[in-house]
Amino acid sequence: MSARLESAALAELAPAFAEPVHDAQAVFRVLLEAMSRPGRVQALPAACLSTMGRPQDLAPALAATLLTLLDADTKLWLGESLDSPALRAWIRFHCGASLVAQPELADFALLGAQEARPALLQRLNAGSDVAPQDSATVLMLVDAMAPAQGNQRWRGPGIEREHELTILGPQPEFWAWRRAQQASFPCGLDFVFAAGDRLLGLPRSTLIAEVD
């Protein structure tokens, strides 16, 4: 993005959390719930949603997640489908995060579901046996998330027995890649799916199988 475009975006900067500390804490609790209970769709706090500002094309759940997780010590890679001067200016001003050009350098990746292809995901840092905690987290915009009677079966920590659900947006090749990555645990990527004001966590510890 050119400096002129970003300067213009900065001049029309959207607001962020109305109550930064309180709202970030509330959203962080939702994110913790999403990651500790995979397969359960979580909603943003109503009070936060009603007062939070964001770039026009950024889903509320993604905006709240960025404001909560990013800071001056984090590096973010933006997928082309969501990248814009307005978003870059908003992130730099409200989060202070560094925007990186290479996925390999990112702590977080923000992308649309259609971009979640194996060739890209394999470039993100999946951690190592010595430091699995250094892996990246993918924040993905999806079309919809529907629990119960879905086309996937999720099992693992935080799931009493199993969850069936459908996530619309990611292509079959994404799910095939994710199932193959289960053999690499404890290394791997963590995912947060977002649609509108809803969030869904997919930690690397969750096992996914297709429903027959």
Short description:
With 212 residues, the chain is of the alpha/beta class. It has one domain: Rossmann fold (3-Layer(aba) Sandwich), CATH 3.40.50.11310. It contains seven helices and ten strands.
CATH topology: Rossmann fold
Number of strands: 10
Helix/strand-derived class?
alpha/beta
Model regions low in confidence, pLDDT < 50 over at least 5 residues: none
Can you tell me the number of structural domains? 1
H/E element string? HHEHHEHEEHEEEHEEE
Mean pLDDT: 91
The first-to-last residue Cα distance is 46 Å
GO biological process, one term: organic phosphonate metabolic process
Protein name: Alpha-D-ribose 1-methylphosphonate 5-triphosphate synthase subunit PhnH
Organism: Roseateles asaccharophilus
InterPro entries: PhnH-like_sp, Phosphonate_metab_PhnH
Structure description:
The model has no long low-confidence stretch (mean pLDDT 91). This protein is an alpha/beta fold and 212 residues long. It is built from seven helices and ten strands. The radius of gyration is 17 Å and the shape is globular. The protein has helices at residues 3-11, 20-36, 46-51, 60-69, 85-94, 118-121, 172-181, and strands at residues 42-43, 75-78, 98-99, 108-112, 137-141, 144-155, 163-168, 190-195, 198-202, 207-210.
